[in-house]
Amino acid sequence: MKGNIFKITLGIWLILWVSFITRELFRKGYFYDYKALIFRSLEGKRSYVTGDRFYEFLTFCNERLPPLANYGWVGVEPESVDMRRAAYYLYPHLEKKDYPDFILVYDKPMIAKAGYETFIRLDYVRYILKRKGDI
Amino acid sequence: MEFVRLCIAIITITFIGWNILYALSFRYKSNLHFSERLAVSYGLGLGFMSLGMIFFYFFNIGFTPLKIITPWSALVLLNSIIYFRNHKKATLTAAFKADDKNHRFLKTFFIIGIAFEAAYAFFRALIKPLESYDAIAIYAIKAKIFYLSKSIPHDFFSRVTFVFPHPDYPLNIPLSETLIYLFLGNLNDQLVKIIFPLYFVSILTVVYFGIRRFANSSYALLFTFLLASVPQFSAYATNGYLDLPLSFYCLTSALFLFLWFQNREAVCFLMISAVMAGLAGWTKNEGFMYCAINIFMVVLFFIFDCREKIWSKLWYLFTYAFIIFAISLPWIIIKKSAGLVNDEISLINYSPANLISQSYKIVPIIYEFQKQAFGFKKWNLLWIVLFFILIVKRRFIFIARERYVTIFLFLSVSGYILMYLINSSPIEWSLGRTWSRFLLHFLPLAVFWMATILKEDPRL
After folding, report:
1. So what's the pLDDT on residue A97?
2. Which of B62, B237, B286, B334 could form a disulfide with B121 if both were Cys (CB 3.0 to 4.6 A apart)?
């Protein structure tokens, strides 16, 4: 009796084990992620996991923001994983809530923000605003 | 070349951990199998080297691999002298059960299963750079700051840390990541993830040899395989969260304490347990709860099972608590001086009146518990099997060595329930976000408990 309980439990465990790995690989799409990631460079992998389009904008911001300038966001949901990844990739630039030196605008057509002017554009919906006056 | 540097980093960390373990063991081999010593050494090395890096902040010294290693070389030198003078004296008898020659097919199958899970964990961890929420937002960003400034910046605790979430979280893993970056010579946030599957393998090793002390290899392999194949457990070996490192320190602190309960001559087990408990507090705030549980277990043991003189008991208890306190002290000093507090949990909320007013949270807590228990996608059948064993083998859960494991698990769950009661965040949000991770902290010990209970039944 005990031997049977053990065998049945182990059998179900093994079936679930295999099915969860398979499900993860194919239904959740991990296999396709691995296939896409395996031959990419480190930079390419960062871009893939962050989202190529968003990562392109972060790289653009990193290249254009002056050293130690702080920034704020428009178009990225506060506390979202994108916001956290941006904070990680943009460091040593730090985020500032009130009156930052620069505002990074993502996926928003030209917005008017009092006290700010266009600094540089990546495209029509991805650009950087700069606070008017000396920074 | 980067891979070679990474290997050098891991070997250096483990070697320093090995020396710390050697010093803690008073030169005794302390009944640890070679693989078990490697696993324990890895966790010890990483924990102590990152703790050492905090002193660089106190003395305003920058980080380089050489500067970080240098203080430990004194210990290596001392150990070498002791080893070459006295190594023949220093042994205890081996404590593992004889291996069985049966169940070859099952054993081979479990070994392949464990090897697959370990290899898959390394693959999943190393295929991507750090990208998951907490891994990036709380830990990797701190590691990046430390690496770029080659130190803990002097204004880090007064200004910079407040820009990012949870400034009060301990720095074991961020500093460990910095250490790997320093060895690599660049900010490779992909290779740095090797830290996490190594903790995964270390936990499996410690669990296996923990069970091997009272059972044969096929029995130990079965439970090690069960642990390795829990989807949630293997997933967290790859995503850069701190739950598995904490799980490692909780497991080793508890297991070595139980080993000391069985063999009080081996004081080194008590020392290892105290050090691991201290490192649990240095890894995550929840680790302090495990420090308290460990100290409480020692008190319980002295009250009910120890016939030594009161002064001897007090000495052991004081030493145990002192080691934990000494390891926690640097971080406590920084937290107090910088005013780093947790924004969700505060000791002020521990009043009985507040606990009663929060008792309505018990219903969602129980609901979440059952949701996890039947959450096969994360836990396979593990919690169902555990509850089944709890009911069917209830006669065995409070006998001999099992009772301390049972009490430890009971206190762990109770501690988390208490944390939810005093948590100021909305309970459903808090439970949904954290409970499935908290379970990981005592999961290896729960598997060990299942192994001990089933073994205790003479009919099996």
Report:
1. 85
2. B237
Q: Residues A22, A70: one domain?
A: no
Do the Cβ atoms of B140 and A34 come within 8 Å?
Answer: no
CA distance B144 to chain A (A): 8
Which of A13, A40, A82 should be substituted to probe chain B, the one whose Cβ sees the most B Cβ atoms within 10 Å? Answer: A13
Q: How many CB atoms lie within 10 A of CB B132?
A: 18
How many Å apart are CA B290 and CA B411, to the nearest integer? Answer: 9
- Tell me the average pLDDT of chain B: 91
Residue A104 lies in a domain: yes
Taking only the tens place, the pLDDT of each residue in B283-328 is 999 999 999 999 999 999 999 887 778 888 899 999 999 999 999 9
**Rounded-to-integer distance, Cα B137 and Cα A85, Å:** 7
Which range is least confidently modeled, A9-23, B75-89, B183-197, B341-355? Answer: B341-355
Residue owning tokens 């300038």 = A69
| A45 domain-assigned | no
Same domain, A125 and A78: yes
Q: Both A25 and A90 in a single domain?
A: no
What kind and span of H or E run contains A119?
strand A116-121
**Structurally, how many domains does chain A consist of?**
2
Whether B345 has a pLDDT exceeding 80, the answer reads no
Q: How far apart are CA B342 and CA B29, in angstroms?
A: 41
Residue A85's domain comprises 51-131
The answer to whether residues A56 and A9 belong to one domain is no
Answer yes or no: do A14 and A78 share one domain.
Answer: no
Q: What is the pLDDT of residue A98?
A: 87
Is the CB of A32 inside 8 Å of chain B's CB atoms?
no
Best residue in A19, A37, A91 to probe B by mutation, most B CBs within 10 Å?
A: A91
Domain annotation covers residue A64:
yes
ipTM: 0.92
| Residue A8 shares a structural domain with residue A69 | no
**Same domain (yes/no): A86, A122:** yes
Chain B residues within 8 A of A91 when measuring between CB atoms: 141, 144-145, 148
Query: What is the spatial distance between Cα A128 and Cα B83, in angstroms, rounded to a whole number?
Result: 63
**What would the mean pLDDT of B359-371 be, rounded to a whole number?**
90
